[in-house]
Amino acid sequence: MSMFVSHIDLLSDVCEITGLSYTVITDSAGSKGFLVTLALLLAVSCKMIGFNRELLSKLVQLGVILVIGFAAKTGLKHVTESPRPYTELLTHQLLIPNPEHFYKLDMKQKDEVIAQVSEHVSEWRTRHWQGEKDYSFPSGHTIFAAICLAFFGGLFAQHRKYGLAALVMVWAFAVAYSRLWLGMHRPIDLVGSIAFVAIVYALMPSFERLGDELITRLNLPLNVSLK
Fold first, then answer.
1. Which residue among the candidates 7, 101, 128, 185 is catalytic per the annotation?
2. Where is each Phosphatidic acid phosphatase type 2/haloperoxidase domain found (predicted)?
3. In sequence order, which residues have a C-beta less than 8 Å from that of residue 78 and are 6 or more positions away?
4. Is 16 among the domain residues?
5. Which residue segment(s) compose the domain that 92 sits in?
6. Are residues 59 and 105 in the same domain?
7. Which residues contact 52 (CB under 8 A, 6 or more apart)?
8. φ, ψ dihedrals at 52, nearest 5°
9. pLDDT digits (tens, 9 = 90+) for 60-108
10. Sorting pLDDT into bands at 50, 70 and 90, what band is 227?
11. Which residues does 90 contact at the CB level (< 8 Å), separation at least 6?
């Protein structure tokens, strides 16, 4: 990622296909589309292995990890107070004295500053800047993508669906890169997000007993194939 980010120029022209592609990719892990992505991956998982004790216990685990991930993202942003990369461009364009100053402005002033730089920056980038004016570290999009890769990628690989696992990995990598391309994050934000998910996932219990209890209470068979 560090090697790839060196060539990104936030002032460069962006064609419609490129801008739309990165927008769709980044939105698939953001507030606009993460539920769709999650539903699609869950549907594929149920189709592949059926709704059974294994999947139910893993879904409980996934839910807990998602809650921890999203909560930690919000908390860490306020603790680290790392300015987003595009605030550096605003500084270079002499619109603000330094990146930290951007966060002292009210929402209207932030909108106006970003609008001023829109003469030099593609709308495909500034529309995301207008939508996300909070701090940079860690990347919430990358946290979600890393969780999906660890959970669904691992689940698919465990059941020897290596093609599906590879697709999830490519998607997760594309999401991470889109955040760099848009000027929303630095490589360290992505690394921190992935490391955080890895630690949480490694420490998370399996919830197998809870899965068994839910199956018993819901009076479900141990294995319901949806194929």
1. 185
2. 57-205
3. 135
4. no
5. 83-132
6. no
7. 222, 223, 224
8. -135, -175
9. 888 889 999 999 999 999 999 999 999 999 999 989 999 999 999 999 9
10. very low
11. 96, 99, 102, 113, 114, 117
State residue 209's pLDDT score.
59
**Residues 126 and 149 both lie in one domain:** no
170-219 confidence digits (pLDDT tens):
999 999 999 999 999 999 999 999 999 999 888 877 655 555 555 555 55
Q: What is the pLDDT of residue 226?
A: 39
Q: How far is C-alpha 136 from the geometric centre of its chain's CA atoms?
A: 13
Report if residue 177 sits inside a domain: yes
Active-site option among 7, 101, 128, 141: 141
Residue ranges in the chain assigned as alpha helix (H): 2-5, 16-27, 34-49, 53-80, 85-92, 107-117, 123-131, 140-148, 154-158, 162-181, 187-203, 208-217
**What pLDDT does 50 receive?**
74
**Is 120 in the active site?**
no
Residue 192 inside a domain? The answer is yes
Whole-number Å distance between alpha carbons of 174 and 199 = 22
